[in-house]
Write a structure and sequence with these properties.
607 residues, alpha+beta, seven-stranded antiparallel sheet, 17 helices, globular
């Protein structure tokens, strides 16, 4: 297969609603963790006494592209400060992690895999020519240590072995040395084979296991795509086979899967970890990059436009550890939490409402999505994601003005320096496709551009439709957007200090108490889609960019015993308890409290 190359922050400049979203992120937690959170501010990675494992590399993996995409000099200087400190602490033999030499055997080298990935991101953004040699020395030491038996893969490193291939592929392109291929073989041999775990995914469990851990699985889906070339193996689309199992037994309406922490079945009140959302997005980006198959981009959009914004506060100063598709409150549960292994605060919003991994790791979601807007395959430029942005490179400049996915109008301004091919990916759900006013068959559009300026106006429509979900429930979709009944809420703020970590406004903890009804069912098929345009906060619950007016009726839904703030998996009764109401449903990503999977009254099959 011919790889597709995404552009870097040197060529991509976000605009429109996407830029506003990135600016909100920069002003929130992502852009300030190095000032307020001890695990980043005082990390052992930069000579401090706090966590010296995954949290700084996780954060840098998203913070770096965020800084460079926005051209924010203050953030760029902060990124360089961290990279300089990490490089300066690299030992003579190549080891780079903050770990004493006699303790390396006990150090989980997942951190090596992750820091190399973050260093590559920095190289892509900055062009810093120190980086290839730094990565070379790290991985050469990794090779020598693994081959000699001085260290081995275990725990997280064993279950995330494929992450090493992000930097291994980069290194082999630079140096083409045989030891790199040999290291690839060693890592795969010592790594866990998820094909042996499929049976464990078919039934929810309350036992914490690495092979059913939702983040590991989200990362794993790209494993064959990123590793097969260096390993000399045939690509078999194993990710599709594994996804079929995951979606059948643990799938969600937003095309991810439940996991709180481990795979959790089909109940829409079970949680999905934020780390799993951003890692699954990255897996889909890499799967498209290595295969060119558009199905991965459609799945990516579902996550980015629904699951990602829904689990972040609008100002991006707080986040959830897990989100629920049917989320009627975000209150501490007074007894054992309704999750597999997470605690009672996991679905509240805060600085680190369960574990701090998501606090550091969520930063990669929006920036890497923005970097996937355009790609190149040979001499062909591809508009892969219809995101408002500008591509500027030596042969071509493309400016895309659009409010997609909040409407379906695309306006391209293209300036070519030579004749070339340009492809616009059109999603499979597009209807009544028009190009410069003329109707076309739905599907990707390829243009043969001549040197000079070209203007393209592309428009299509989407139809709201119900999609069946398990247990006799349905969801309402329009294109890549899910729609939910938005539940109004009161925010209950809590400021405190725990284990030396301060929570204070705006990065304190929040619980959300519902103040409007949530116990609805769909009662008709008349649906009215209205576009309002994106505002300063693209995923705003009070000012949603698009709505669908639908006929709804209240029903006796009921609470999941013994909880007071968790809806039942399915309604207690389908008998209406009120008259039909016209309700404006908003995008799932706009609603922090919501009902999404609901019955359609009059349909059979409710379990």
């Amino acid at each position: 297969m011919d790889n597709i190359n995404f552009y870097t922050s040197k060529e991509i400049s976000p605009s429109g609603w996407l830029r506003r979203q990135l600016e909100i992120q920069a002003k929130g937690l992502s852009g300030n963790l190095h000032k307020i959170w001890p695990d980043i501010r005082d990390s052992a990675w930069i000579g401090g006494d706090r966590e010296g494992w995954e949290r700084v590399p996780y954060w840098l993996d998203g913070f770096i592209p965020l800084a460079y995409l926005l051209g924010d000099e203050e953030l760029i200087r902060a990124a360089k400060k961290y990279i300089d400190a990490i490089i300066s602490s690299q030992e003579e033999d190549g080891w780079i992690c903050p770990c004493e030499k006699d303790k390396r055997k006990e150090y989980d080298t997942w951190a090596i895999q992750l820091i190399c990935k973050a260093l590559k991101v920095y190289y892509d953004c900055s062009g810093d020519e120190r980086i290839p040699e730094v990565i070379y020395k790290v991985l050469k030491n990794y090779y020598d240590s693994l081959k000699s038996g001085a260290i081995s893969l275990f725990r997280w490193g064993q279950y995330r072995w494929f992450e090493t291939f992000i930097s291994l592929n980069f290194l082999y392109e630079k140096y083409e040395e045989d030891w790199i291929k040999e290291l690839a073989q060693i890592i795969k041999k010592q790594g866990f084979d998820y094909n042996t775990a499929i049976k464990d995914w078919m039934k929810p469990s309350h036992i914490w296991r690495l092979k059913t851990h939702v983040v590991n699985i989200a990362m794993m889906l790209k494993s064959e795509a990123v590793s097969h070339s260096l390993l000399g193996e045939k690509y078999t689309d194993n990710a599709e086979r594994l996804l079929a199992v995951l979606e059948c037994y643990n799938g969600t309406a937003f095309r991810g899967f439940t996991g709180d922490e481990v795979l959790s079945g089909l109940d829409p009140t079970r949680g999905t970890e934020l780390c799993a959302v951003v890692e699954l997005m990255y897996s889909y980006e890499e799967l498209y990059k290595h295969t060119g198959d558009n199905k991965w981009l459609e799945r990516l959009e579902m996550l980015a436009f629904n699951a990602l914004p829904a689990t972040l506060s609008e100002d991006m100063w707080t986040h959830q550890y897990v989100q629920q598709v049917n989320q009627i409150a975000c209150r501490k549960t007074m007894i054992m939490a309704p999750w597999s292994t997470n605690g009672p605060y996991a679905h509240t919003f805060g600085l680190e409402p369960n574990f701090g991994c998501c606090t550091a790791n969520f930063s990669q979601g929006w920036p890497k999505f923005a970097l996937s807007a355009f790609a190149r395959k040979g001499d062909t430029v591809i508009s892969t994601l219809m995101l408002p942005s500008v591509l500027t490179e030596k042969d071509i400049t493309v400016r895309l003005e659009t409010d997609y996915p909040f409407n379906n109008k695309l306006h391209y301004y293209i300036d070519c320096k030579k004749d070339m091919s340009f492809i616009v990916r059109i999603p499979s759900f597009a209807q009544r496709l028009q190009v410069n006013g003329e109707y076309r068959e739905t599907g990707d559009i390829e243009f043969s551009l001549t040197a000079g300026q070209t203007e393209l106006k592309i428009e299509f429509s989407v139809s709201p439709c119900f999609e069946e979900r398990p247990n006799g429930l349905s969801v309402l979709k329009a294109g890549s957007l899910l729609f939910s009944v938005p539940v109004e809420y009161e925010k209950i703020m809590r400021e405190y200090t725990k284990k030396g970590v301060e929570r204070k406004f705006p990065y304190c903890d929040y619980q959300l108490q519902p103040t409007s009804p949530w116990n609805y069912a769909f009662s008709g098929e008349e649906l009215k889609l209205t576009y309002h345009g994106s505002g300063e906060i693209p995923f705003s619950q009070k000012n949603p960019p698009v709505t669908i007016k639908a006929d709804m009726k209240k029903i006796n839904w009921g609470l999941k015993f013994p909880y007071r703030s968790v809806a039942r998996k399915t309604p207690k009764s389908l008998e209406p308890v009120g008259k039909s109401e016209k309700i404006d449903l908003c995008p799932y990503g706009c609603a922090r409290l919501r009902m999404t999977e609901m019955p359609v009254l009059g349909k059979k099959g409710l379990k």
